[in-house]
TrEMBL record:
Domain of life (superkingdom): Bacteria
Protein name: Phage tail protein
Length: 143
């Protein structure tokens, strides 16, 4: 009987655990669907020595976020658009950056030491960047 071999859809997904102290940055937000209608992403342009921003969406309920300097305006737009999509989805959403770890999109994530030790998030995306000092990964997750 093959019925005995059926497992839950998420049971075989890889689980990645990180501790709060491993995070360079951690942002978790709770949102109700359609609470925000626009996002403004701001960053410090080190070449022009001024604050720049880009707005995605329209309306008066605006979520403001700080981002690291993007390579171009399109990258900033994509980050703001992703945040707006995330906020309009509702639930818990987050992002963290940490020094090189093997974490893959599609898996589950547990973050220890944040009073959510038993909470598992779904990993939406993982991006990698390298600089002179370190290998950094950025992880986007949701509930």
């Amino acid at each position: 009987d093959n019925a005995a071999n059926i497992t839950s859809k998420n049971e075989n997904l890889p689980l990645f655990e990180i501790a709060l102290k491993e995070c360079i940055s951690l942002e978790i937000s709770e949102s109700a669907r359609n609470e925000y209608s626009a996002v403004i992403a701001e960053w410090q342009d080190i070449n022009e020595a001024k604050i720049k921003s880009i707005k995605v969406g329209s309306g008066e309920n605006i979520y403001k976020m700080q981002i690291s300097q993007p390579k171009n305006d399109n990258e900033a737009f994509k980050k703001a658009q992703a945040k707006l999509n995330e906020l309009q989805k509702g639930g818990l959403n987050g992002r963290c950056e940490l020094i090189g770890r093997e974490i893959r999109a599609g898996g589950k994530l547990k973050i220890k030491d944040i009073n959510m030790d038993n909470y598992e998030f779904s990993i939406k995306s993982v991006s990698h960047s390298f600089n002179d000092q370190a290998y950094i990964i950025s992880v986007e997750f949701e509930s």
